[in-house]
Design goal:
With about 375 residues, this protein is an alpha+beta fold. It is built from 7 helices and 26 strands. About 40% of the residues are buried.
Length: about 375
């Protein structure tokens, strides 16, 4: 194996695989990237067995070949090389020599045969999804997925098709049992991706597809098989293994009797939450909202440190109510709104609260309150 690649192009390739290559996996080869040199291109593959990423870059090839190299160390080497061409040459004993300018490195690898096999591409025709639509959906729901690995079915994000007024939407739903987020984005040809299926994808996998969506202009190409969600854009491809678990019937927990409605300026609300959260207890992050007339007080109290209060004007015509929340949950919910006004729908101080944009039906967050005395 022997090829030459521009230093900045090599860094770009390695940047795209770092989130997938596992540094502490029980299988050492999964901390490596499979580097394969063809007639005029180099291909890099990383895998953690649940996510696979594959990138291709044209290079000047002198000799084809393949080897698995430590992904993080190769990235560290590339970042300290001088700008310009980099020569990568395979040597005996699964070593490679990397040279650029006056810099020379000798890096140990593993035989390419030890690297896991690539999954097949889904046979269905890819569906074009606007990159910004996909990014926005993931941003709105990802923080709501459970971080508890024992709650397998809540650690993923549900993807399903929704139809309304002659339009087709990709819906993403996430919950950790205390809060729920639902986000819809219009995708005209979505039926070719999911049909009537509901699929559950790991949060990490969708975050990697989101990174792909953010990488330059162009749409995502998505397709799905029984076991994988596939995404492609430009010279990069991603496979995300779907979770074999049953997502809760989220429609059954949608509140239906929240008659108290407050309209709150989003930016002022977000700023107030950020300020008072400085004094919120570290373990529970509790904040309290007190609504009365045209005013809302946002407060937090720490028995050891003190308290913080903030007042802002709102539109509210219901009876006075005081209700407590995990402040981080509130910030995540408000963070999914781009409109100027947040609509909060309340039943009482112990029932689920709905938070959504005042005029946008494509995003809804539901949060369980917490008791604060």
């Amino acid at each position: 194996m022997n090829f030459t690649v521009d230093r900045d192009q090599l860094i770009g390739l390695l940047t795209r695989i770092q989130g997938v290559a596992e540094r502490r996996h029980t299988m050492p080869v999964l901390s490596h990237t499979l580097l394969t040199v063809g007639k005029s291109e180099v291909t890099l593959v990383a895998s953690d067995l649940e996510i696979v990423v594959r990138c291709v870059q044209p290079v000047e090839t002198r000799e084809p070949g393949s080897i698995a190299l430590p992904a993080r160390k190769l990235f560290d080497i590339a970042k300290v090389l001088p700008k310009g061409p980099v020569l990568v040459a395979g040597k005996e004993g699964n070593y490679v020599e990397i040279s650029a300018g006056q810099g020379h490195f000798r890096l140990a690898g593993l035989p390419s045969q030890e690297f896991p096999e690539m999954p097949e591409k889904p046979k269905s025709r890819p569906v074009s999804v606007d990159s910004e639509v996909f990014r926005k959906l993931v941003d709105r729901v990802a923080s709501f997925a459970s971080s508890d690995e024992t709650r397998y079915n809540l650690a993923g994000i549900l993807l399903e098709k929704q139809a309304s007024e002659g339009k087709t939407f990709l819906r993403m739903v996430a919950t950790d049992g205390h809060r729920l987020a639902i986000a819809d984005g219009e995708v005209p040809e979505l039926g070719g991706l999911l049909g009537e299926r509901r699929v559950l994808a790991p949060r990490k996998g969708l975050m990697e597809i989101k990174k792909l969506a953010e990488g330059g202009p162009g749409a995502l190409e998505l397709s799905a098989s029984e076991k994988f969600l596939f995404a492609g854009k430009g010279d990069t491809e991603l496979w995300v293994r779907l979770l074999d678990a049953e997502f809760p019937d989220y429609k059954q927990v949608m509140p239906k009797e929240n008659q108290l409605v407050a309209r709150i300026p989003r930016e002022a609300f977000s700023d107030a939450l950020r300020r008072v959260s400085v004094m919120a207890p570290e373990k529970v992050h509790s904040v309290k909202l007190s609504l009365s007339g045209k005013q809302m007080e946002v407060s937090a109290t720490s028995p050891e440190l003190g308290e913080a209060r903030d007042l802002l004007g709102v539109e509210y015509g219901g009876a006075p109510v005081k209700i407590g929340f995990n402040g981080r949950y509130l910030q995540d919910a408000v963070g999914g709104i781009q409109e100027d006004v947040v609509r909060m729908e309340i039943k009482d101080d112990v029932s689920q609260v709905i938070i959504r944009p005042a005029e946008d039906a494509t995003y809804t967050a539901i949060i369980m309150p917490m008791r604060i005395y």
